[in-house]
Amino acid sequence: MSEPTEQDIRERAHRLWEQAGRPEGRDDEFWNAAEQELRNEDKSNTLRTLDTL
Fold first, then answer.
1. Mean pLDDT across 10-28
2. Which of 3, 17, 34, 36 can pair with 12 through a Cys bridge, CB separation 3.0 to 4.6 Å?
3. CA atoms 28, 31, 33, 39: torsion sign
4. CA distance 20 to 49
């Protein structure tokens, strides 16, 4: 499993922020949510090989 890159997190956080109506002062909240979503997506990937176990 690879960790999400900073760029991946940034893009996801920005999308979440826009969907929430662009509220101010909640940067950390969107960053953490984006990071968690990306990590959960990686764990739910059903394509497993010996390299990813």
1. 97
2. 34
3. negative
4. 37
